[in-house]
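Bumping with the actual sequence this time:
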Amino acid sequence: MKMDIRYSNHPEDSKHYDTETLRRHYLVEKVFVEDEVNLVYSHNDRIIFGGVTPVNEILKLGASKELGTDYFLERRELGVINVGGEGTIKVDGVEYNLKFRDGLYVGQGAKDIEFTSVDGKNPAKFYINSAPALKSYPTVKIDLEKANKIKCGDEINMNKRTINQYVHPAVCDSCQLVMGLTILEPGSGWNTMPCHTHERRMEVYLYLEVPEEQVVFHLMGQGQETRHIVMKNEQAVISPSWSIHSGIGTQNYSFIWGMCGENKTFDDMDHIKIEDLK
């Protein structure tokens, strides 16, 4: 199990970063690595995120020095969405089969977590988010149909999309983790605009289904001091609580969002008018 550490960055520092420095601190270029548990530990609300890609091996979530616990979920909860081939997750001996876009919530206290692909030639790609937790809630499988759906946006503003809430109070209990998948319609590119911040929660985006010749311009920074990071398919980016959350693709795409922090109120946002952006 690999764990990359990313420290928090002050907005006054971040506004001086050049492209290379922005990418080094906030972008994760390689999320899914064959037969590896490839994780990032961010000091922004201590979220852990990354890819678990079993091809020829059974992969396990283990303890690490960064956690200071005897096992991974001793003081954490876990959300998973599979963005690859069919696979299984075994939680303390109970198997859950996850097809493409199926999700799973695993509560604090689960000790043995194993990941397997049904077919190594078409491996599962388990994308995980984990947040600190002090109470145990039941493990729940969440497929795309079970996810709470919010349709929003329109064609004129190029932001017509469906927000699928997986780990969310409308679907299952969690301590602080909220996680879901947003799918943009053809012809739409904005994942949210007008943009917003939510000072009470940080966020991580994983951009998906971005064609090889296309990109997403992920916007970040404060509303009057914006920056952008050019992103490709299956890359993730850290959005601190002080940063705007928005992006525009050269073609429609999907993305997984995960949040943790003070609350689980999805619409607790501080919107910024388009005309006020700089």
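The tokens above came from a reply further down the thread. Residues 235 and 251 are 16 Å apart (CA to CA).
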